[in-house]
Amino acid sequence: MLNREDLDSLRADFEAFKEKNNLCEDGSCVSGGSIDLKDYPNYTDALYNIIMPPSKSGVYISRWDLKEIAEDAGESMAIHPRRRMFELLMKYAIDRERMKLVLDAIEKHILYKA
Description:
Layout: H1 4-21, H2 41-51, H3 54-57, H4 63-73, H5 82-92, H6 96-113
Helix pairs in contact: 4-5, 4-6
């Protein structure tokens, strides 16, 4: 079951990864165009495999749940297959503030359902 400590650990891992790889510090990765998730397959897959399976998070996160999580994070999202919706949610989280909003919304949702 994914609990508060797991989410805090996930946040810490993300921050360490970001600092280690100096991601977007100079603004070079922020573009007006779309971001190709194929550039980050392991990161998106790793998060998906940690958060989405009920055996790990303790709750089933449906497509409607993902839609609500996105809305809580400030993004409007259409209904798609769960994996695609999660990828779109990660695509929205392109900077520190948005990632914090997404992780906080996921945590809030998991704690509410647990």
